[in-house]
Write a structure and sequence with these properties.
heterodimer, A: mainly beta, six-stranded mixed β-sheet, B: seven-stranded mixed β-sheet, 0% helix
Chain lengths: 113, 113
């Protein structure tokens, strides 16, 4: 079993729809959770960074963490064609000698105009 | 502000030739540095990471090596490329001594022919 599971999609939605993305994980030591957006042939760009359970909003983006269920989500409201990209979840634990992130495989999203 | 530079953006190399990819970070001291490889449609595979000058940890046995000759410089090398070394190589950095988010360069697309 992979440490982080993420449905690769692809996911296609009409412009203006809500995009819902999620990841599950198995390592209860994970404390920090991130979402990255990656356009084709570019490096991943950090979108959201959260610590602990709960919601965090940033503009049209909402990140949600449920540690009890080992489940994280990213919601994109009022989606735009420019949101078409691959979205990667990432996470790490709180250990002073562990600086490695565990990544999901990424979900490819297409927003249709 | 911090920036990361990675070059070249694209590289085509014959089998058996050497490789040197360079990455530099500006605006921070003693960063953690990482080399990832991303195969088409797949997630990020951590190849090497470094928490200080001359300190390299290898995650996957392979035809590649990494070096950190200066605090903010990270180099990925190979003496003889294989066809299987083709892929998208990403350099990243994170803040020293903390389990925080990583910031990525724009990547190098390597094709071994």
């Amino acid at each position: 079993q992979k440490e982080v599971e993420q449905d690769p999609g692809p996911l296609s939605v009409p412009e203006g729809a809500i995009v819902s993305l999620n990841c599950t994980y198995s390592n209860s030591a994970f404390q920090y959770f991130m979402w990255y957006r990656q356009y084709s042939r570019k490096g991943p760009e950090l979108l959201m960074y959260t610590y602990s359970s709960g919601n965090k909003e940033d503009g049209r983006f909402t990140a949600q963490v449920d540690k009890s269920s080992k489940y994280i989500s990213l919601f994109i409201r009022d989606s735009q064609p420019s949101d078409s990209a691959t979205y990667l979840c990432a996470m790490c634990g709180w250990r002073s000698n562990d600086y490695k992130l565990s990544f999901g495989a990424g979900t490819t999203v297409t927003v249709r105009a | 502000s911090q920036t990361i530079h990675q070059w070249p953006a694209t590289l085509v190399q014959p089998v058996g030739s050497p490789l040197s990819l360079e990455c530099t970070v500006e605006g921070t001291s003693n960063p953690n540095l990482y080399w990832y490889r991303q195969a088409a449609g797949r997630g990020l595979q951590l190849l090497f990471y470094s928490v200080g000058i001359g300190q390299i940890s290898s995650e996957v046995p392979q035809n590649l090596s990494a070096s950190r000759p200066q605090d903010r410089q990270f180099i990925l090398s190979s003496k003889k490329l294989l066809l299987s070394d083709s892929g998208f190589y990403l350099c990243a950095w994170s803040h020293s001594g903390q389990n925080t988010e990583a910031f990525f360069g724009q990547g190098t697309r390597l094709t071994v022919v």
